[in-house]
Specification:
The complex is a heterotetramer, with 2 copies of chain A and 2 copies of chain B.
Chain A lengths: L4 E3 L2 E3 L3 E3 L8 H4 L9 E2 L17 E4 L2 E4 L8 H15 L4 E5 L4 H11 L5 E7 L10 H4 L2 H14 L4 E4 L7 H10 L4 E4 L3 E3 L2 E2 L4 E2 L6 E4 L4 H14 L4 E4 L5 H10 L1 E6 L2 H4 L3 H15 L14
Parallel strand pairs in A: 3-4, 3-16, 7-8, 8-9, 9-10, 10-15, 15-16
Antiparallel strand pairs in A: 1-2, 5-6, 6-14, 11-14, 12-13
Chain B lengths: L1 E14 L2 E7 L11 E4 L8 E4 L2 E3 L2 E7 L3 H6 L7 E8 L13 E5 L4 H12 L5 E6 L8 H6 L4 E5 L6 E2 L13 E5 L2 H10 L3 E5 L15 E4 L2 E4 L6 E3 L6
Parallel strand pairs in B: 8-9, 8-12, 9-10, 10-11, 12-13
Antiparallel strand pairs in B: 1-2, 1-7, 2-6, 3-4, 3-7, 5-6, 13-16, 14-15
Classes of the chains: A alpha/beta, B mainly beta.
Bound molecules: flavin-adenine dinucleotide (2 copies), flavin mononucleotide (FMN) (2 copies) and FE2/S2 (inorganic) cluster (2 copies).
Chain lengths: 302, 243, 302, 243
């Protein structure tokens, strides 16, 4: 049975990648299990300068999911390069994905440039879809023009495989996808979180200090699946399917829709061993549905 | 941190809306009073964090107040039920700093982690005393347990139905205090830190996504930058905090 | 304790309205309980001509929700008027809401016109957001211009209070809301279903014959709440909050976000007495959160 | 229709992946063989529909095959568990049309509603016979029960491990049949209707949103327009259907 796939020229032992923002820089998980079993992991979204993120509360409970409004708390690209990457090298020996965010086209490009010489970084994932910072991310992800612009600038700034992470909070995600592909994206990851909110009946105020937050978890799986299916028909580059994945069956379903690889996000927070458990369950689930080579599933439902 | 399956052994009402739940299971990940566990409740997505009130080999006790959907469900847990828990979370109190006569200050559910802390201090030959604040006499708990341990107890209630009338600070002399350990709602912690001339440690609460450091959901900004309540805390030195 | 509210000039004993497509024409529920306890109910989406709807399967299971692709099966406006409304009169004695759909601006207008003289109809709910018919509904709901046009035509065709039902599958729902208000909508209801899909791992094909379907149920509640909150800040007309409501607490939360009334949809399918149960639970839930008059909650979180 | 709470009394494996679940509870909403119930499974959103295989006062039996998440969970239900069910759903078979010697035709799980139908026909003095089709001998069930009732049984299995090798039509003589009742997968029902010269009734399955007529999720297009499998069916006269 073969679980390996190739993502923008890099071969992964399996398609399961831990999603950005739910896996930190890997350290807390490496204490629990050998994370070299992962296809890869995407580091916490990184900006040019360090960011403290939004005031708390940043987290709210939802039916089959959660809201977060972390707001891109991160130590800034220089510390990620000088401190986090060397730490990662101690426990993880495969290429990692660098998740990049910014508040201007130039900032995105500059962060990509600084990552250029980092041998550990296998792919850059351009997050143009963070719903939790004002004037940042999401603004780029909701317009095909802006998405194209930032992709173009990043493309010029780096030779690494460039994956653009799309927002689901749009009328036509295929249009944004095509704009990114046209400007040189090597892959697309989707979806980031759906904009949502919760109110506290006791205080009669939003639960989150940021008022709105991003919805993730099994609740969003059908929406993510639909968008992967739509984008698969719109572009030729490989897709990373993200949103609510929490079992090996979900991985297969997302690949059938058109994903070459998948990312597992919130499931890591609920079950710290989620990625490992899913990877271990893959062969049995493949056998159940008569799958010999996982690659054969990619786009199989079209 | 360890992921364990615990078995509910007891789940009894000990004060108004307040339950004590005793589990059997692997307690080996707990190393310091003030640590917590994160408990999965079927039908709810996020785990729920609770301070460990006491533990010994094979046995862990929490005390919880019913405040919402999760704790409502917990109140229905029967003996023998299996519960998925992440254990040994957080740093816990540093007992090495206590001096001979530390003051323990707890507000409401904040009294809970102080029980284990108190026992640990006593075991080290210290002479702790405790001040506790509650809404009213009906919500109070642990008074007897502390007294049986020979620890001086002072109590305040908001409605004056037990002890001094007022907040916990009305029941203790911060000026005589040489070191303190505090746990409770943020306004109380803020007031305690402001009133104290001595050094001390406080335990914070924050809404959590994971409870083990992965999501940055529980960040507090400290003198040395952003810290995660779940892993860098929940206990912080008074001097670290920016109120 | 007062649970009554006023919706476009009509006073309802409580804000709970059964949502279109989940309550048929009321008959199956009237056999179970006296549905006069409802604030109102919205009839199955009606078009000019009878429609058989989409081929089955039309239903798929999701985490905390479901997909449907019924495709506006209905007997057509003339039969609704000649057969369904008289039947309803036998067991329901309050104004009902007529949910109207169409495939052209003229069709929408014509259906509204035919409803004009029906005394039982308290409001017309213009469904410009059905994701399950091609060339229909959704196309009008995803563009402010088209939404404005169809609202304008319906406005001319009827004197009934006109409520436009918005689609969540858009980048900026406030923009669509403003366009409808500008063209004379008396109220807005939101949200219709989120476009989603599921695949069957055994057949490797979409579960739904229609490929995609509309996601509803508790999974969508945080998205619906956020949209009601946003639209409340964008328009002055009353809002009907819809999406995942299944408890009295959900009703209060939706009203705090800005809803004057709410609709309960999928919950009716799972628990046929859901609306009655929610209405009965309202007073106790109001007491729990110190609410004397439910009207005071409307928009309270802003 | 009635909404009831049923208590699981038995839940035993009776054939490969096939369980028989007996409930105690209010059976008063059932009025005809071929009706079904719609069962809530915690953790899943939609209810799951199952034909009632037998009922009497206070007692209802279903037989189900494990095929997915819901039926997997059902297989773990223990005696004493409470289950929320909608009961008395669907029209059921019309036994008045049967004539003296109706043929009952069932494929796989489609055999289930035929048990109650058979008993009802016997009670009315009719002389039914039954033809059943299964994948293999291991999946077969009810053969003994029917035989104990004195009903002639013929069986076909796809792999020939029991009875005739082939589909159920290979085990029965449609040309000799004067009236039939059929339940099973759509291709089987289609073949049965095509092969039969007599009139008959067939029971359909469709993915359901509600099971009681509210959602239009289960529509089938018939000679007299769109009909709901859950309320206008699941049983339809052969002549009604458009294949
Ligand atoms: C480190 C730590 C230790 C704690 N120890 C205890 C204890 O020993 N005893 C006790 O009674 N309570 C304790 N709490 C608070 C306890 O976690 C909450 O009361 C509980 O999660 C409420 O869950 P609910 O579903 O009943 O409430 P809901 O309001 O329905 O919960 C909704 C969401 O908000 C979160 N939430 C609600 N209140 C709090 C809170 N005060 N702190 C953090 N998250 C919250 C929940 O975890 C959940 O994600 C502790 C909290 C933390 C962070
Ligand atoms: C009127 C009626 C009577 C039935 N009687 C029986 C019976 O007596 N014994 C029995 O074993 N099965 C019966 N079925 C089929 C049974 O409902 C499904 O096998 C069951 O719902 C599968 O649930 P799952 O969660 O295990 O499968 P999943 O595939 O995980 O279910 C996913 C969704 O698809 C639906 N679904 C899957 N298969 C079917 C199906 N064949 N028909 C309708 N919906 C389906 C489920 O209800 C659920 O909504 C009947 C179906 C209908 C409509
Ligand atoms: C707490 C949290 C933090 C996140 N931070 C980031 C981030 O920094 N960059 C990013 O691209 N996505 C971030 N995401 C989005 C996830 O990577 C993922 O796209 C989303 O959660 C959907 O997947 P899931 O349903 O599996 O969680 C974050 C999600 C969560 C829950
Ligand atoms: C089976 C089904 C059929 C529906 N049909 C209609 C319809 O005809 N017209 C309409 O405006 N909305 C229709 N809807 C959408 C609902 O009215 C409602 O907007 C949506 O389901 C969200 O609410 P809920 O989460 O409470 O179900 C339908 C929904 C379902 C589940
Ligand atoms: S709760 Fe996730 S980092 Fe603290
Ligand atoms: S399943 Fe809802 S109408 Fe039949």
């Amino acid at each position: 049975m073969n679980t390996s796939i190739t993502l923008c020229g890099v071969t992964l032992s399996n398609p399961v990648i831990a999603a950005s923002g739910t896996f930190g820089f890997g350290e807390d998980f490496a204490k629990l299990y050998d994370i070299n079993c992962l296809g890869s992991f995407s580091m916490k979204g990184t900006t040019l300068l360090p960011r403290e993120g939004n005031p708390t509360p940043r987290i709210a409970e939802c039916a089959c999911g959660m809201l977060n409004a972390v707001g891109l708390q991160n130590p800034g690209i220089d510390k990620v390069i000088s401190e986090e990457l060397p730490k990662i090298a101690e426990f993880y020996h495969k290429p990692v994905m660098a998740n990049v965010s910014g508040f201007s086209v130039d900032e995105y490009a500059e962060v990509c440039r600084r990552l250029n010489d980092q041998a550990q970084v296998g792919w850059i994932e351009l997050n143009i879809s963070c719903p939790n910072v004002h004037g940042g991310g999401l603004a780029f992800g909701t317009s095909p023009q802006a998405a194209g612009q930032v992709t173009k600038a990043a493309r010029r700034a780096t030779k690494k495989p460039l994956i653009v992470k799309l927002s689901p909070n749009v009328t036509d995600i295929a249009e944004v996808a095509r704009a990114c592909e046209a400007e040189g994206a090597d892959g697309l990851s989707l979806i980031n979180t759906l904009l949502g909110m919760r109110l506290d009946l006791k205080t009669r105020r939003p639960v989150l200090n940021n008022i709105t937050g991003g919805l993730s978890g099994p609740a969003v799986f059908p929406v993510a699946l639909r968008m992967v299916y739509q984008v698969y028909e719109a572009v030729c580059v490989p897709l990373l399917g993200i949103g609510g994945i929490s079992s090996a069956a979900d991985v297969l379903e997302m690949m059938l829709a058109g994903a070459t690889a998948v990312q597992v996000g919130s499931a890591n927070l609920i079950n710290p061993c989620a990625c490992r458990d899913i990877i271990e369950a893959l062969p049995a689930t493949m056998a159940e549905y008569g799958v010999k080579d996982l690659k054969d599933m990619i786009g199989g439902a079209h | 941190m360890k992921q364990c399956v615990y078995l509910v052994e007891e789940n009894e009402l000990i004060a108004q809306n307040t339950y004590r739940m005793v589990f059997s299971g692997d307690a080996s990940a707990f190393t310091a009073p003030g640590q917590f566990l994160n408990l999965q409740i079927s039908g709810l997505y996020l785990r729920r964090p609770f301070s460990v009130c006491e533990w010994e080999e094979g046995c862990v006790t929490i005390v919880y107040k019913v405040v919402g959907a999760g704790t409502q469900k917990m109140a229905t847990f029967k003996r023998g039920r299996e519960v998925d828990v992440l254990t040994g979370l957080g740093n816990g109190y540093d007992v090495s700093k206590s001096g001979l006569r530390p003051l323990l200050i707890g507000g409401g559910a904040g009294v809970l982690p102080l029980m284990m802390l108190c026992k640990t201090l006593l075991a080290k030959g210290k002479q702790p005393s405790i001040a506790m604040g509650f809404g009213s006499a009906g919500e109070a708990f642990f008074q007897n347990t502390f007294e049986e341990l020979g620890v001086p107890v002072s109590i305040a209630t908001m409605d004056g139905s037990l002890g001094a009338k007022g907040v916990v600070l009305d029941a203790c002399r911060m000026d005589a205090c040489t070191y303190f350990y505090a746990c409770g709602p943020v306004p109380m912690l803020k007031a305690v830190c402001a009133a104290s001339c001595s050094d001390g440690q406080v335990s914070l609460e924050e809404r959590m996504g994971c409870g083990f450091g992965a999501c940055m959901g529980c960040t507090v900004i400290t003198q040395s930058g952003p810290k995660r309540v779940c892993t860098d805390g929940p206990v912080f030195a008074k001097g670290e905090l920016i109120w």
